[in-house]
Amino acid sequence: MSPLLASVTTAVVEWRTRDGAEETTRTDFVEALRDHGQAALERSGPPTHVTASAFVFDEDAAHVLLCFHGKGRFWVQPGGHLEAGDTSVEGAALRELREETGVSPAQLGGVAVADLDHHALGGGFGRCASHLDIGVVGRVSDLNAPLVVSDESDAVAWWPVAALPPDSAPGLADRLARVLAAR
User: Fold this and answer.
1) Under a CB-based contact definition with an 8 Å cutoff, are residues 41 and 49 in contact?
2) pTM (2 d.p.)
3) pLDDT score of 128
4) CA distance 113 to 10
5) Which DSSP state fits 107?
6) pLDDT by residue (tens digit) across 141-162?
7) CA 5 to each of CA 1, 83, 169: distance values in angstroms, whole numbers, following the listed order
8) How far from 65 is each of 52, 156, 174, CA to CA, in Å?
9) Which of 3, 79, 90, 151 measures 20 to 30 Å from 113, CA to CA?
């Protein structure tokens, strides 16, 4: 078993669900890993595969860092596909965070798995039908640090958790509430 598959498996197995919907989501992960193994981690694997994302908040969790996704045309947390060089799901999420926003892992005050989410994708995502996303959470103290916009996004910005942009990804507000409740 690769270190990345071991990390993903551990995150899924150790995740403590709080309700039936979260248990259904965890079951989706378990089935994908059972049925596809390492391939479930690869973009070229099955149309439903594992991704990693990072929910980054300020110290009092009043603001969240979001990217305006170029393909999806919505505001969402930084994240994306796992890559061959990734050795942990946390590392993959932090790599995506750095690539998409310029925020480095050194700026975060600790990182932990905070959410499992299974979401469908629109036609603009090619062969990807849905993502089994493992979200990690971290905090930064300096909201004025420079941000970088990657070629996958049109913008990167801090948004008040209580006033998300109207063109946010479907389910983002609910997912943020779950992440904040889990921390």
Assistant:
1) yes
2) 0.92
3) 74
4) 10
5) G
6) 888 888 999 888 889 999 999 9
7) 6, 12, 27
8) 15, 7, 16
9) 151
The residue among 75, 103, 99, 94 whose CA lies nearest residue 161 is 75
Confidence of residue 1 (pLDDT cuts 50, 70, 90): confident
Written as one letter, the residue type at 140 is: V
CA dihedral 120, 67, 149, 121 (to 10 degrees): 10
| CA 32 centroid distance within chain | 17
Beta pairing class for 48-58 and 130-140: parallel
Half-sphere exposure (Cβ direction) of 161: Cα atoms closer than 13 Å: 17
In the chain, what are the domains? Answer: 3-182 (3.90.79.10)
Token pair 């669900």 is at which residue? 17
Dihedrals φ, ψ of 125, to 5°?
-100, 15
pLDDT confidence bin for 126, thresholds 50/70/90: low
In 3D space, the residue among 2, 143, 168 whose CA is nearest the CA of residue 73 turns out to be 168
Give the amino acid at 33.
Answer: L
